[in-house]
Write a structure and sequence with these properties.
14 helices; Rossmann fold; Multidrug-efflux Transporter Regulator, Chain: A, Domain 2; alpha/beta; Methyltransferase, Methionine Synthase (B12-binding Domains), Chain A, domain 1
């Protein structure tokens, strides 16, 4: 129940906010419609994708917006406020600094969000900007062309633009995952030189390692330790795991590639982590790797989840079926397990 103060008294109106407090007076034609379009900071956070902490900081430090207040000083956000927060999130994810865009009118923020999209092709080894990119497949083609032209900066811009257009989850699942696979296949088939492959993986590693601008981790967030076992030098899968977990609200301690099992266990126990995730790409069905996985499960507390994924993971699943291990065949399965574990934390 909400009381809206009017010149001749207070009117009680039931709204979706379910708040039993007074809302400041506004001049409006349709009182019920205006009230029903307001959101609490919790709802604004869920819709915009920003944490409540970031919203408050942007309001106080950068004057990004001024929400309405109830008589008990709780924030209320209208539809325009929520759109503005969403635009600011997308633009900061694309690389804009919040201090530079916080006070811009919303119309200008919309214009910043939709510049012409580059399509990249190569002519004589050079990357050329032509027309718009709309789909994940077009972004992937553009990224491959940029790598083939040794254009690291252009590849970086394309991936940041894909994040802006598709969101962080779309970038990880629909662009970077298939891009990594295509880069590997192109190198194996001789379509990309080793140097070109290194340009691609270097930029992808940089994107995956960098937190999304404006993102925050809650103090009580579950923690995930991510690594690959000793001898496993392929870390791209582990970086994907770390980036996806961060996006789902986990605190991540990334240990990198080829680390002894005892060191992974020592870190996880010292951090009192909720879970440990390993990426295993090569070799498949190796007894040494099998024993390492079994050994890690023994060293970790029984209450600490252990997750294994990567191209070679399936080859160990049957032999370790009796162990308390979660197996992820793809990034979607990993996300499912992370969400399940996170809810139980």
């Amino acid at each position: 129940m909400i009381e809206w103060t009017r010149p001749h008294g207070k009117v009680q109106i039931v709204t979706p906010l379910h708040l039993n407090e007074s809302v400041p007076r506004k001049e409006c034609g349709n009182l019920f419609n205006e009230l029903s379009m307001h959101y609490t900071i919790q709802m604004a956070s869920q819709i915009s994708g920003l944490s409540q902490h970031v919203i408050r900081i942007w309001e106080r430090r950068y004057a990004a917006l001024v929400p309405d207040r109830t008589c008990t000083n709780r924030r209320l956000y209208c539809q325009d406020d929520v759109e503005r927060l969403t635009l600011l999130r997308r633009l900061t994810e694309a690389g804009h600094r919040i201090r530079n865009i916080a006070k811009l009118p919303t119309d200008e923020l919309r214009q910043l969000e939709v510049p012409s999209q580059p399509t990249v092709t190569t002519t004589n080894g050079e990357a050329i900007v032509t027309e718009g990119l709309d789909t994940p497949e077009q972004f992937i083609e553009g990224c491959l062309a940029a790598a083939a032209a040794y254009e690291a900066d252009l590849l970086r811009r394309l991936l940041n633009r894909a994040r802006l257009q598709l969101g962080q989850r779309g970038l990880l699942h629909r662009v970077i995952c298939p891009l990594i696979q295509k880069v590997g296949e192109s190198w194996q088939q001789g379509l990309l030189r080793p140097g070109q492959e290194h340009v691609a993986t270097g930029v992808i590693r940089e994107i995956l390692s960098s937190p999304v601008p404006g993102s925050q981790v809650a103090e009580n967030a579950p923690e995930l330790v991510v690594a690959t076992p000793a001898g496993e030098i392929h870390e791209m899968g582990a970086l994907l795991v770390a980036a996806s977990a961060r996006d789902l609200g986990w605190r991540v301690t990334y240990l990198g590639a080829s680390l002894p099992i005892e060191e992974i266990s020592a870190c996880a126990c010292a951090r009192k982590a909720t879970a440990v995730a390993l990426s295993v790409v090569y070799p498949e069905g190796c007894q040494v790797i099998e024993e390492k996985l079994r050994r890690l499960r023994t060293l970790l507390p029984g209450t600490m989840a252990m997750m294994v994924g990567g191209r070679a993971a399936a080859s160990y699943r049957m032999k370790l079926a009796d162990e308390n291990i979660l197996w992820a065949g793809c990034l979607h399965e990993l996300d499912r397990d992370l969400l399940k574990i996170g809810r139980g934390n």
